[in-house]
TrEMBL record:
Name the record gives this protein: Toll-like receptor 3
Locations listed in the record: Early endosome; Endoplasmic reticulum membrane; Endosome membrane
Entry keywords, A to Z: Disulfide bond, Endoplasmic reticulum, Endosome, Glycoprotein, Immunity, Inflammatory response, Innate immunity, Isopeptide bond, Leucine-rich repeat, Membrane, Phosphoprotein, Receptor, Repeat, RNA-binding, Signal, Transmembrane, Transmembrane helix, Ubl conjugation
Gene Ontology biological process terms, A to Z: defense response to virus; inflammatory response to wounding; innate immune response; intracellular signal transduction; positive regulation of canonical NF-kappaB signal transduction; positive regulation of chemokine production; positive regulation of immune system process; positive regulation of interferon-beta production
GO CC annotations on file: early endosome; endoplasmic reticulum membrane; endosome membrane; plasma membrane
InterPro entries recorded: Cys-rich_flank_reg_C, Leu-rich_rpt, Leu-rich_rpt_typical-subtyp, LRR_dom_sf, TIR_dom, TLR3_TMD, Toll_tir_struct_dom_sf
Function per UniProt: Key component of innate and adaptive immunity. TLRs (Toll-like receptors) control host immune response against pathogens through recognition of molecular patterns specific to microorganisms. TLR3 is a nucleotide-sensing TLR which is activated by double-stranded RNA, a sign of viral infection. Acts via the adapter TRIF/TICAM1, leading to NF-kappa-B activation, IRF3 nuclear translocation, cytokine secretion and the inflammatory response.
Membrane-protein topology: Single-pass type I membrane protein
Taxonomic lineage from the root: Eukaryota, Metazoa, Chordata, Craniata, Vertebrata
GO molecular function, one term: transmembrane signaling receptor activity
The TIR domain, residue ranges: 755-898
Protein family per UniProt: Belongs to the Toll-like receptor family.
Keyword NAD in record: no
Length: 905
């Protein structure tokens, strides 16, 4: 009861404060600074108890039918009101009157069907109005007349059949008008002339079934910069018409994705000739035929997307006139190989010759046969070329393949996923500027003589991962000493152990990936001299033998001299040993991955040089102990640790230090409670290691110290200090015990009659009732048994120290009734215990019997009474049972203890 009282009080207080809250509040809005988020709360009314100084109120996803101005009056500082996803069907004109500062009003996904001239008449400060997804079918008169500051207006997903939003010129600051997904079928001059003073950056008309562009429709708009007409089923002839209507406008961006532009001719875009169009999107059109000179009208075009089309043929005049295009997207632009295997797209020589400004060309995911001798001729500014998955039969890269790129300042060439089998000598000799070459995910299988890379004078990164096989030679990389990144993952790397090392010329290498190669044999020269190496991936190899003690010639130190290594991955190599010196040269190491190996015991000091380590992983090894002398240095600056799934040995020696470190550290250790489990000892199997109780371990430190120092020269000096520290008697206790053991003293067992009492009972004053209750019945049962009970056997309750000493002397045994009270009782502590122990030393150890009435940890016992369970025989330590049935067994045990002879065995 005493213990449960405080928590009872707390829960009562909690209940009380909860009731105070629920009395005053019905909402669960989250208010942070001046933003109130009341979304997803099934509200039917505007909450009336938010701070009045909020500026943003989010009421989305509720069940509001109205936004009564009366309820919003108190929030008159609102600048943003988001009422989307409700059932609002009517707006009060007073709303904006009450919210004079409102700038953003969002009412998307509601049930507004009617807008009158009054609806927004007071909303003069609005810059953004969103009415998307409402059932508005018609706009009458001029509901937006007063929105002189409006920048964005969204009326998409309504039922509008016309673009007409007013009868007079208005919305002079509008920049974005969204009318997509309506039922607009025609663009007419008179239905757009309300925008006569606006300059629209975006006019979004996608997903309407527009069939008509009447004369002058776009000229009705003040200025039009961007028109979006995606998903509109516009045919070639309608697009031609559209472009004619756009002539002489300010149009810069035109998006016509997903229409029905199956072919283009030299007239399709002719209307755009007087414009400055810089962006054109013709993606997803099933475009099949590009007529010659189709784009001659677009000399200002910079960004051109033709992705996802069905182009059959590019001729040398298809792109004629596109002199300013910088970015051309031809991803999946060409005919996909259909049933007939011969239907490759045809790309004529010199097709790109006009694209003098082209910097970025994406031709991914196409179905081209190969590279023609002059395919890329004329691309004198090309910097990035992606040909990933672009060819069906680019089997061999010869010294001619890329000749058409000889005059391009190409920096990046992506050739992944092309089923390339072989790179011939000089294949890239045309690409002297190239920095990044991606050859990954092909089927290359060859010996690298070094001639393959001839001419790559500026190469920075080569990606060769995921190929069939690569056989190294001493000269494999001899001609590309500028290389800084080399990726050779899963290429069945052969001949890695050749001497001199194939990597020796790569003095500037910073990243090397040799993972997933099943490498079993390397020598200590492999990485010699790669002093700039920062990242080394060696995971998924078979390097275990190299670090074995028993390796002929000793362990192979293949990491030596990598002074600037930051990241090292050695996962999944079967390592079961690490030489003590393995990481000695890696003072800058920041991330070390050693997971998925068979490591158990690591040499002390193995991580001593890893003072910069921030991330260490050792998951799924066989580590049982995490000891200070191995890990202290590695853990010093650690931010992330993964040691999960190891079979931890939950004993003081093995993990006490680790557990105490975990309790103190800020290091991020994921899955700590679920994946760090004890394996041994048996009673802790499956128990979370972090819950291991280290308090009994703490005292082991002084003993360790004693052991270590007593072997040294200073032992005598320390002995004196300890003598004082342990208050003398303790030393003599051990001394006496030792003497008894060494000299094999016989028992001083006087006959039972020589003692007046069977036992002297030491207990706290507060426990006297328990003692009385349990010991006097025993005396009654057995007349020969007589205990010395202080309250009864001392005269008039006077506790004379002398009397105590004498009584103890006249008792055969001494019983300690150990409770928390006893530990706190000053007389017991100072005197009686001291004396009893003295006697025990003089007599024998099993003259003392400890009866525990409650669970007392050993360290507390030691601290309070200088006693330890370990000093006594197990049959002299009794626990008072919790279950009544076991009380008999307890009495039996006590009798055995009382009857046992006082002896040291
Ligand atoms: C807004 O009001 C709340 C109390 O209603 C107050 O705690 C907070 O400081 C106020 N914020 C500002 C910026 O005035
Ligand atoms: C209001 O909340 C919804 C859902 O949580 C969120 O999508 C929307 O962006 C929020 N509106 C504002 C103005 O922050
Ligand atoms: C909203 O206003 C109406 C009418 O003024 C009032 O009856 C209602 O209690 C108000 N609701 C809240 C939540 O303030
Ligand atoms: C618009 O907002 C400004 C402050 O930004 C305010 O001074 C002005 O009164 C508001 N206009 C109206 C008509 O309420
Ligand atoms: C367009 O092509 C046709 C032939 O297909 C040609 O007769 C006509 O002159 C061309 N027009 C322009 C403007 O190039
Ligand atoms: C390409 O290699 C062939 C031999 O395989 C050689 O005859 C030819 O001169 C080389 N061409 C270039 C441009 O190096
Ligand atoms: C090459 O293209 C593939 C596919 O688009 C991409 O995943 C890869 O990152 C690219 N390589 C480089 C170096 O950009
Ligand atoms: C290696 O890098 C250094 C410094 O960045 C540079 O001066 C040197 O030219 C590079 N070496 C090669 C072979 O590119």
């Amino acid at each position: 009861m005493r213990q449960s009282l405080p928590s009872y009080i707390y829960s009562f207080m909690g209940l009380l404060s909860f009731c105070i809250l629920c009395a005053s509040s019905t909402n669960k809005c989250v208010v942070r600074r001046e933003v109130a988020d009341c979304s997803h709360l099934k509200l039917t009314q505007v909450p009336n108890d938010l701070p009045t100084n909020i500026t943003v109120l989010n009421l989305t996803h509720n069940q509001l039918r109205r936004l009564p101005s009366a309820n919003l009056t108190r929030y008159n500082r609102l600048t943003v009101l988001d009422g989307g996803f409700n059932s609002i069907s009517k707006l009060e004109p007073e709303l904006c009157q009450k919210l004079p500062l409102l700038q953003v009003l969002d009412l998307r996904h509601n049930e507004l069907s009617q807008l009158s001239d009054k609806t927004f008449s007071f909303c003069t400060n609005l810059t953004e109005l969103n009415l998307m997804s409402n059932p508005i079918q018609k706009i009458q008169n001029n509901p937006f007349k007063n929105q002189k500051n409006l920048i964005k207006l969204d009326l998409s997903h309504n039922g509008l059949s016309s673009t007409k939003l007013g009868t007079q010129v208005q919305l002079e600051n509008l920049q974005e008008l969204r009318l997509s997904n309506n039922k607009i079928s025609a663009l007419r001059r008179e239905e757009l002339d309300f925008l006569g003073n606006s300059s629209l950056k975006i006019l979004e008309l996608s997903s309407n079934q527009i069939k008509e562009f009447s004369p002058g429709c776009f000229h009705a708009i003040g200025k039009l910069f961007g028109l979006f007409l995606n998903n509109a089923q516009l045919s070639s002839s309608l697009i031609e018409k559209l472009c004619l209507e756009l002539s002489d406008t300010n149009i810069q961006s035109l998006s016509l994705s997903n229409n029905q532009l199956y072919r283009t001719s030299n007239m399709t875009f002719s209307g755009l000739k007087q414009t400055n169009l810089s962006m054109l999107d013709l993606s997803h059109n099933s475009l099949n035929v590009i007529g010659n000179n189709s784009f001659v009208w677009l000399p200002h075009l910079e960004y051109f997307s033709l992705e996802y089309n069905n182009i059959e043929h590019l001729s040398s005049h298809s792109f004629y006139g596109l002199v300013n295009v910088r970015n051309l997207n031809l991803k999946r632009s060409f005919t996909k190989q259909s049933i007939s295997l011969t239907s490759f797209p045809k790309i004529d020589d010199f097709s790109f010759q006009w694209l003098k400004c082209l910097e970025y060309l994406n031709m991914e995911d196409n179905n081209m046969a190969g590279i023609r001798p002059n395919m890329f001729t004329g691309l004198t500014n090309l910097k990035y070329l992606s040909l990933s998955n672009a060819f069906t039969s680019l089997r061999t890269l010869t010294n001619e393949t890329f000749s058409s790129l000889a005059h391009s300042p190409l920096l990046t060439l992506n050739l992944t996923k092309n089923k390339i089998l072989k790179i011939e000598s000089g294949a890239f000799s045309w690409l002297g500027h190239l920095k990044v070459l991606d050859l990954g995910l092909n089927e290359i299988g060859q010996e690298l003589t070094g001639q393959e890379w001839r001419g790559l004078e500026n190469i920075f990164e080569i990606y060769l991962s995921y190929n069939k096989y690569v056989e190294l030679t001493a000269t494999s990389f001899a001609s590309i000493s500028s290389l800084q990144r080399l990726m050779l993952r899963r290429v069945t790397l052969k001949n890695v152990a050749s001497s001199p090392s194939p990597f020796h010329p790569l003095r500037n290498l910073t990243i090397l990936d040799l993972s997933n190669n099943n490498i079993a044999n390397i020598n200590d020269e492999l990485l010699e001299g790669l002093e700039r190496l920062e990242v080394l991936d060696l995971q998924h190899n078979n390097l275990a033998r190299l670090w074995k003690h028993a390796n002929p010639g000793g362990p192979v130190h293949f990491l030596k001299g990598l002074y600037h290594l930051h990241v090292l991955n050695l996962e999944s190599n079967g390592f079961d040993e690490i030489p003590a010196e393995a990481f000695k040269d890696l003072p800058e190491l920041q991330r070390l991955r050693l997971g998925l190996n068979n490591l158990n015991i690591l040499p002390p000091s193995v991580f001593d040089h890893q003072v910069s380590l921030t991330s260490l992983s050792l998951q799924k090894n066989l580590i049982t102990s995490v000891e200070k002398n191995v890990f202290w240095s590695a853990f010093k600056n650690l931010r992330d640790l993964d040691m999960s799934s190891n079979p931890f040995d939950c004993t003081c020696e093995s993990i006490a230090w680790f557990v105490s470190w975990i309790n103190k550290t800020h290091t991020n250790i994921p899955d700590l409670s679920s994946h760090y489990l004890c394996n041994t000892p048996r009673q802790y199997h499956g128990f979370p290691a972090m819950l291991f109780d280290i308090s009994p371990c703490k005292d082991s430190a002084p003993f360790e110290l004693l052991f270590m120092i007593s072997t040294s020269m200073l032992s005598i000096f320390i002995f004196v200090i300890l003598l004082i520290h342990f208050e003398g008697w303790r030393i003599s206790f051990y001394w006496n015990v030792s003497v008894h053991r060494v000299l094999g003293f016989k028992e001083i067992d006087r006959q039972p009659e020589q003692f007046e009492f069977a036992a002297y009972i030491i207990h706290a004053h507060k426990d006297r009732d328990w003692v009385w209750e349990h010991f006097s019945p025993m005396e009654e049962k057995d007349r020969t048994l007589k205990f010395c009970l202080e309250e009864r056997d001392f005269e008039a309750g006077v506790l004379e120290l002398e009397a105590i000493v004498n009584s103890i002397k006249r008792s055969r045994k001494i019983i300690f009734v150990i409770t928390q009270h006893l530990l706190r009782d000053p007389l017991c502590k100072r005197f009686k215990v001291h004396h009893a122990v003295q006697q025990a030393i003089e007599q024998n150890l099993d003259s003392i019997i400890l009866i525990f009435l409650e669970e007392i940890p050993d360290h507390k016992l030691n601290h309070a009474l200088c006693l330890r369970r370990g000093m006594f025989k197990s049959h002299c330590i009794l626990n008072w049972p919790v279950q009544k049935e076991r009380i008999n067994a307890f009495h039996h045990k006590l009798q055995v203890a009382l009857g046992s002879r006082n002896s040291v065995h």
